[in-house]
């Protein structure tokens, strides 16, 4: 039996698994910019509670953890699930 493979489709699937997509990011998306003497980093953490966000700095590495829970409960029947759930993290090396 002859099997057809599409290397571009396989590469696209692999990059989505490793790096995520706009709809399902693997890490927390961020913007970083300089404003005068300050350096500002903004992370997107929609759907998370303030209590679930952890920020630590160790040896010039800023680490941000956040958790977005899924919809749970008795009588809940998920029809469409496109929002990522679980624990997300991002590390930024500070100069």
Given as residue ranges, the uncertain stretches (5+ residues, pLDDT < 50) are none
CATH topology: Immunoglobulin-like
Please estimate the helix content: 10-25%
Provide the CATH architecture: Sandwich
- First-to-last CA distance: 56 Å
Mean pLDDT: 80
Number of structural units classed as domains: 1
Overall 3D form: flat
Total strands:
5
The ordered H/E elements are HEEEEE
Total helix count? 1
Main pleated sheet: 3 strands, antiparallel
Structural class: mainly beta
Strands of the widest sheet, in order across it, are: 3-4-5
Mind telling me the CATH class?
A: Mainly Beta
Instruction: Give the strand content.
Output: 25-35%
The radius of gyration is 18 Å
Features:
mainly beta; about 35% strand; two-stranded antiparallel ribbon; 3-stranded antiparallel sheet; Immunoglobulin-like; about 100 residues; 5 strands
Describe the structure.
With 95 residues, the protein is mainly β. It has one domain (7-93): Immunoglobulin-like (Sandwich), CATH 2.60.40. The protein is built from one helix and five strands; from the N terminus they run H-E-E-E-E-E. The protein has one helix at residues 7-19; strands spanning 30-35, 38-43, 54-58, 61-68, 86-93. The strands form two sheets. A three-stranded antiparallel β-sheet has the order 3-4-5, with no helix packed on it. A two-stranded antiparallel sheet has the order 1-2. The N and C termini lie far apart (56 Å).
């Amino acid at each position: 039996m002859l099997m057809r493979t599409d290397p571009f489709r396989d590469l696209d699937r692999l990059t989505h698994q490793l790096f995520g997509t706009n709809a399902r990011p693997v890490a927390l998306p961020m913007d970083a910019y300089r404003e005068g003497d300050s350096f500002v980093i903004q992370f997107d953490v929609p759907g998370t509670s303030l209590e679930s966000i952890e920020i630590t700095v160790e040896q010039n590495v800023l680490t941000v953890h956040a958790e977005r829970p899924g919809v749970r409960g008795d009588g809940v029947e998920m029809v469409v699930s496109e929002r990522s759930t679980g624990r997300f993290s991002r590390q930024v090396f500070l100069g």
